[in-house]
Amino acid sequence: MKNIVLKGVGASPGVAIGRAYIYDRYESQISYYNLTSPQMVEKEVRRFRRAVRAAEMELKGLAKRLKTIDEPTPVYIINVHLMILRDRSFVEGVIRRIREEAVNAEWAVRVTVDYFRRIFERMENEYLRERFNDIRYVGQLVLRHLEGKVNKAVFQPEERVIVIASDLSPADTAQMMVDHVLGFATDIGSRTSHTAIVARSLGIPAVVGLERITQSVRTNDIVVVDGMAGVVIVDPDPEVKHRYEEKNRLYLEDRTECMKYAHQPAITKDEYRVRIGGNIEFVEEIPQAVSYGAEGIGLYRTEFIYINKEQLPTEEEHFSIYRRVVESEGLSWATIRTFDLGGDKFFSDPKLAKEMNPQMGLRAIRFCLKEVDLFKVQLRAILRASAFGKTKILFPMISGVEEIREAKRILASVRADLEREGVPVGEEVEVGIMIEVPSAVLVAEALAQEADFFSIGTNDLIQYALAIDRINERVNYLYEPLHPAVIRMIKHVVDVGHHMGIPVAMCGEMAGEPLYTMILLGLDLDELSMNPLAIPKMKMLIQQSSRAEARRIVQRILRMTSAEEVRKYVTDYMLKHYPERWVCEAD
Ligand code: PEP
Ligand code: MG
Asked: How much is the pTM?
């Protein structure tokens, strides 16, 4: 069937057209390579047969053991697996692929399993549909037996592909060869889940929250990912493909046009200047952030240092990274956020055990205050790096004044240790608080006495204020930055901050959305920090606007009582006054 349209959430702009690659956490370890001679092909067939025999032996041994011990797994399940292993269409299917396509056995197993997935998914009967899991299990079993004899390879497709996955953890994306990725499309996630954030920071088009994309697409299908409209089209006909190529061309043209503003300051027509920062996850992104016009780093998510690491980084490893950040050319400041581990960001440390409700669990500052030694290592490294460039420290998830006091007490003791040791530390290291928990909004005045600046994390603030899990696509429709409660909270934080004499930044995804720019200007934010790709357009908009106009808009929307009303008003306003900036944003 041509042109199957799937609707999700546009998570990273741009259009990607290419072959799909179903990414499965286990199967991601599968390598792909071509066999260059008929001898190699036959050798590969033998290797596959050996793996099947070994898998069969394993299953038989298991069945025997099950009969002698009191194990709840019924033997018939093993027998079903044995039947699949002996099934001609499975085994011969793999062999045929090895021979016809001259590919390695692992790849052939994977494509064969994928083929069965499609057949089973079409079955009406749920019980039969579920039987696909048995085929998948057998596929994995054979893969395990093949694995012993080949080098373990990571995700490494031959051509650039569109990665289709149920979900991608930061760890998955971090280990991918991203230069092989044209686009991402996932079943779950929202604009602020980390898959989306990483895709944006890499400049790769992405659509998330598609619910069933992994079941609607097979590896090698041609797909279109439209990261603006949040749409994926499977098997497009030539006309549709052409239309999307055209859309991408327009999008790239628009981006080129905006780039002219990248290195200009963000000043409104009535001379109000906003600082523009870049959000980064990896040091390697800094040159790109600077080239897109970041004046400083407004948010460095240091938890990404931990991703995919078996061992905690040493102080020296931390230090060399932070020093590179603060010394980077072209940056006026670097805000290093202490790690926000937990939630949807994990690392392989057992201390971060699986939790029922991780977003509200032991994450961010809570985790750090519990694991003080680990926290101190990071703080020492940041303070040491601060001797080499303008450094700000930002504490995440502060919910009340005790936490910031405790974090500052630890910071002071670390500073004292360093001074005692004669290690140089920057003179003026500002200490800021992320405002991302509703309780912090309400006690902002007390917090302002403890902090040099605030940075509003709308991704979490919205999730906690509206009780919407930010990665759950089923409640995504309720995730609304323009909810009057959210706007009022931001206003309160900025007003309190200014009243207490400290600057207020915003580093959540809301800061980089052109539709919200006028509101944020009118709310008097001092700094907006965003994914670097969004900076040029933001600077262009700010230059074309005035603060007086922005304040009028805010006065109006503060009287409104529903998000729907606010959204309609700003959308109409922006389309009327800045129509050219919305080229390509929607279909
Ligand atoms: C936020 O919550 O808005 C934020 C910037 O932090 P993160 O997305 O890393 O949780
Ligand atoms: Mg946050």
From this structure: 0.71
